[in-house]
Amino acid sequence: MMRMLPVPADLQAWIEAAVCVHTPPQLACSRFPALAGGMLVLRLQGAVQRGDGTPVPAAALLGAGTQPQAYGHTGAVHAVGLVLRPQAVPVLARADGVHLVGQAHDLRALLGAGWQPLHDAVLDAGSDDARLALLFDWVRRRVDDRRAHDRRLQLQRLLHDACQPPAAAPGSRRQLQRRCVHELGLPPKPLQTLLRLRAALHDGLAGHADGAELALRHGYYDQSHLARDLRRLAGAPLKQLRQGLAQPLSEHWALAAGRP
């Protein structure tokens, strides 16, 4: 149902994962955890709606958010996509994070006429590997200048500062809060929480550590603290997520995106 491709070494600072997806008609819903970064998705088949019934564009950038998302499917869905790191999303979109958060943006409207040739080439490509190769090349062209790399490094430093304890973060905490919201779309505390949960999910879904061991590894107060974040931000407890990923028709298949 989902296949992951390795991200080229030169793009790993920008892209966390590359995926191609084929879901059968009987899978009526997929569930995503809250995102600190974003996803660039091109859908070749099927229709997808957000939980409120809003259609998701066939070519979409899904912005960061602090709530897990459920997406309804109509028919079989075939899509390819890139899971983007938080510091990459504003650079690739050429927009501040505050304008991207919590939305499914139509890439044709967001990126303008220059997007259409790539969209057509992806649709015409003969395989999902070729489609993802086209997306990789687009990212390379999009960031192939000093300004884009400088901007990513600036946002990466901002993200690093956001994840520091208040006493360790440089400068004013209020100023850091304003910058994070404006440039990355979320305040420091949610960013820190989402990145910590993402790391715990990767670890927990890739191995067999119990909740107590995962909590200790990833800086939670205790196992119940981790369990609360899993329910609130991923939508289910760890045991249910593990069981779901082992099933071919799990609604939580999307959690595997970016898994080591």
Description:
This protein is an alpha+beta fold. The chain has a domain at 2-145: Jelly Rolls. Helices cover 42% and strands 20% of the residues. Strands 1, 2, 3, 4, 5, 6 and 7 form a seven-stranded antiparallel beta sheet that branches. Helix 5 (146-162) packs across helix 6 (173-184) and helix 8 packs across helix 9.
Which stretches of 5+ consecutive residues score pLDDT under 50?
none
Which fold name fills CATH's third level, the topology of one domain? Jelly Rolls
The main sheet comes to: 7 strands, antiparallel
CATH class category of one domain: Mainly Beta
Estimate the global geometry from the Cα principal axes. globular
Number of helices: 10
Q: What is the first-to-last residue Cα distance?
A: 17 Å
Structural class computed from helices and strand pairing: alpha+beta
- State the CATH architecture of one domain: Sandwich
Compute the average pLDDT. Answer: 89
Helix content bin: 40-55%
Radius of gyration of CA atoms, rounded to a whole number: 18 Å
Query: In percent, how much strand structure appears in the residues?
Result: 15-25%
Number of strands: 7
Would you list the SSEs in sequence order as H and E?
Answer: EEEEEEHEHHHHHHHHH
